[in-house]
Give the backbone structure.
Amino acid sequence: MKKVLSFIAVFLFCASISTNASTSNNSPVTETCFSIARNWVIQTEGEINIDNVGFVLQLTEYLNSKGICR
Amino acid sequence: MRNSCLSNKFLKGIFFLYFFMGVIPNSHAQNVFKVTYSVTDVKIQGSLDNLDNNSKQLFEKMADYTKDVNYILIANQEESYFEQENALNKESDSPLEHILSRGAQRFTSFNERVYANHNVDSIVFVRNILNQDFTVKRDYFNFNWVFKKETKKILDFNAIKAEGSYYHPVTNEDLKVVAWYIPSIQLQSGPDIFMGLPGLIAEVDLKGAIVTIKKIETIKNLEIEKINDLKAMNQQEFKDLIKSLNKKFENYIDD
């Protein structure tokens, strides 16, 4: 249970970074890996929920490792 | 007279050998079905047009990869065990392979493993939520199957259509499922949690994918794996866990 809650915390931390980045005037045009991953899951599954949030983070990590987003 | 007696003894001996060495062992050699399923179509809830080119390419790769993944059901009339075919064989150390494998699971939304005991209508399944496995023991899902008249051939078997609906506790939604079952194979099993029809389920049309039978084999005395349920949560405990996680999740999202 603790592990799960800490996972949610990591997700929310990423979400807050993503939100801040997209609303900042100084942010670059390129999207963050997290927002790309989030959009991916929303398009494929319809919404983000506790069942797919783990995959959002895994996809974020993968996209980040490819260097195509930050 | 003596010859007749000897011949009777001889026949009895033959009968004895046939009965105990032939009939008895064979009666214990039970045929077990090994059924291979794969994804024949994937569905998305939004639109690919809303994805950038890199994401579209990744989606295409993931959809192709998903169709290569096999799911195995081992079943007889009393019990069944279902899981993805040795995922570790397909999953190399490559980050791409890893993410494709994880993505493939998203379309079907199948549990990691499912064991069903058809004598008592109970199932034990392992669900991965937020990268942690939870084992749950509960009654069959109630699909309220409605039998339809439509039939079609699947692997040369006559399959009959049935429609059902069920509550998905993790995503908190009511989902519809269309199943095609083969009445001539008298197993009440099917892929993942889908079961309870008067014949083996050959195809399920789910929210994110269509999963269809690819191969059916019968193997003598194949062991049907069980899931250790000593520490399994019951239906109510799992429901409470999901409710609590969903509540926390929604609160954070709202904030």
